[in-house]
């Protein structure tokens, strides 16, 4: 079996005596996408930069595609694509196609630069100087620069910052295709919907420590109290409905004829609600299910109270 795309054990990085990454461990299997989430200063970018070989760890071990990012940097770099927060860096005087061709010249088997510009929807900006591209266009060019070498592993640091909604969704589609082709991805983002849409697994960092990890579905389901809403005739006996539902459920008539069931949302709960309504000759109209989002989980865990 090949080594994991990324394997980190007890990683520590300190600045001025303060641990900005505090004994974290994680594994990214080949072909999967890991989203690193956290507030500013949580340690996301530092962790990625250590994996990329741009910073050295103070302690712990890091292996990327089975290699040490510092000691084996020359062997590792051709296999990895990197999209930095500052996008295209200092190459603002070059034209978009020229810059992409320059980065392609560093690769053994680069992708076609013209075709890659078209893939990221920048074909019309091929001859435009980088400094004249919008922020979103520069982000898409930076993504193309990370892809030009046909990497096995992509590090994407806030890849869709500055993009309009259409460009964001186009970028999401491209990332999905890369993952389907077996490319491993480590992504940081402040967009919780982005992580929910793309990630196989999510790790939430707060003050340099991991406070939660799992798939988006696992994180939103664990200890989640969801809500089921429906409309029916006013004055239903909510106590009897509550008694027909799993223990811990709460039922209220929030407005005349409008009902709210608060409980862990499961197929059994929905079946119990509809079965009870049927037994009462009641039609539950407009039944909707609301569950907490990844943003709800993130906010709960990264507030001062939730992170203690």
From TrEMBL:
Its main location: membrane. It comes from the Bacteria. Keywords: Antibiotic resistance, ATP-binding, Nucleotide-binding, Transport. One of its GO terms (molecular function) is ATP binding. It is found in: Cell membrane. The keyword Phosphoprotein does not apply. InterPro entries: AAA+_ATPase, ABC_transporter-like_ATP-bd, ABC_transporter-like_CS, ABC_transporter_ATP-binding, P-loop_NTPase. It is a peripheral membrane protein. Residues 6-232 form the ABC transporter domain. CDD domains: ABC_DR_subfamily_A. This is ABC transporter ATP-binding protein. It comes from Jatrophihabitans lederbergiae. The lineage of its organism: Bacteria, Bacillati, Actinomycetota, Actinomycetes, Jatrophihabitantales.
């Amino acid at each position: 079996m090949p080594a994991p795309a990324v394997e980190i054990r007890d990683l520590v990085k300190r600045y001025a005596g303060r641990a900005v990454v505090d004994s974290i461990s994680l594994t990214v299997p080949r072909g999967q996408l890991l989203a690193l989430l956290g507030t500013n200063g949580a340690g996301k970018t530092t962790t990625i930069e250590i994996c990329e070989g741009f910073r050295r760890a103070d302690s712990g071990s890091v292996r990327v595609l089975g290699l040490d990012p510092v000691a084996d940097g020359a062997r590792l770099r051709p296999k990895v694509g990197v999209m930095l927060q500052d996008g295209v860096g200092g190459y603002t005087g070059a034209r978009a196609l020229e810059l992409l061709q320059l980065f392609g010249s560093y690769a053994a088997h680069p992708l076609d630069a013209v075709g890659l510009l078209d893939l990221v929807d920048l074909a019309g900006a091929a001859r435009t100087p980088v400094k004249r591209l919008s922020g979103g266009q520069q982000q898409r060019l930076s993504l193309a620069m990370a892809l030009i070498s046909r990497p096995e592993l992509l590090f994407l640091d806030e890849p869709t910052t500055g993009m309009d909604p259409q460009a964001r969704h186009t970028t999401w589609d491209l990332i999905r295709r890369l993952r389907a082709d077996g490319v491993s991805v480590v992504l940081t983002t402040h967009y919780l919907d982005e992580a929910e849409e793309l990630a196989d697994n999510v790790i939430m960092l707060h003050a340099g420590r991991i406070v939660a990890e799992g798939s988006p579905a696992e994180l939103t389901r664990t200890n989640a109290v969801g809500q089921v809403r429906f409309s029916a005739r006013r004055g239903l006996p909510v106590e009897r409905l509550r008694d027909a539902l799993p223990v811990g459920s709460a039922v209220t008539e929030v407005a005349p004829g409008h009902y709210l069931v608060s409980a862990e949302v499961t197929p059994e709960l929905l079946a119990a609600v509809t079965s009870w309504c049927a037994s009462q000759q009641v039609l539950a109209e407009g039944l909707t299910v609301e569950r907490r989002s990844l943003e709800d989980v993130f906010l709960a865990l990264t507030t001062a109270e939730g992170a203690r």
